UniProtKB/TrEMBL annotation:
The lineage of its organism: Bacteria, Pseudomonadati, Verrucomicrobiota, Opitutia, Opitutales. Keywords: Signal. This is Sel1 repeat family protein. It comes from the Bacteria. Gene3D superfamilies: Tetratricopeptide repeat domain. SUPFAM superfamilies: HCP-like (SSF81901). Residues 1-24 form the signal peptide. It comes from Termitidicoccus mucosus.
């Protein structure tokens, strides 16, 4: 068994190592976020999805669900299937944004592009959505036209 002072020194060294490692990871995540954000602001839908995910999870930036939803919507509006699927799920599961017809719209658009997760989510939604919400969701999906953003929009 180690003497108490040796054990304490080892513990302090381990804490210093891990806190330095975590700080470096946080700094790296912040740099990644800034890089994605710069591209997202120029209209890159894949970067917009990455920014949304990072806002939702707090990766390289403070968690901000409203910002995440805004970035999901920007990417989804351009036809990004991953963003459409994520938006569809969040429209089911979050009280502030709950709208089953909107969820159906986004999930059906993503599923039509072959997005596997959205295909599964849409099948699950089909079992619990009302006929009125399904009809409205289909109407909204039918009216959807993806719009690519101009650079810097």
């Amino acid at each position: 068994m180690l003497p108490k002072h040796t054990a304490r020194l080892l513990l302090l060294a381990a804490l210093a190592f891990f806190s330095t490692t975590l700080f470096a990871q946080d700094a790296n995540e912040a740099r990644k976020f800034q890089s994605f954000l710069a591209r997202a602001e120029k209209g890159d839908d894949k970067a917009q999805l990455a920014v949304a995910l990072r806002y939702e999870r707090g990766m390289g930036v403070a968690k901000d669900f409203d910002q995440a939803m805004a970035w999901y919507l920007r990417a989804a509006s351009q036809g990004n299937a991953g963003a459409q699927g994520n938006l569809g799920v969040r429209c089911q599961k979050t009280s502030k944004y709950k709208d089953m017809a909107e969820s159906y719209k986004w999930l059906s658009l993503a599923a039509a592009q072959g997005h596997k997760g959205s295909i599964r989510q849409l099948a699950a939604l089909e079992k619990k959505i009302s006929d009125a919400d399904r009809a409205e969701g289909k109407k909204r999906a039918g009216a959807f036209k993806p719009k690519k953003e101009a650079a810097g929009q």
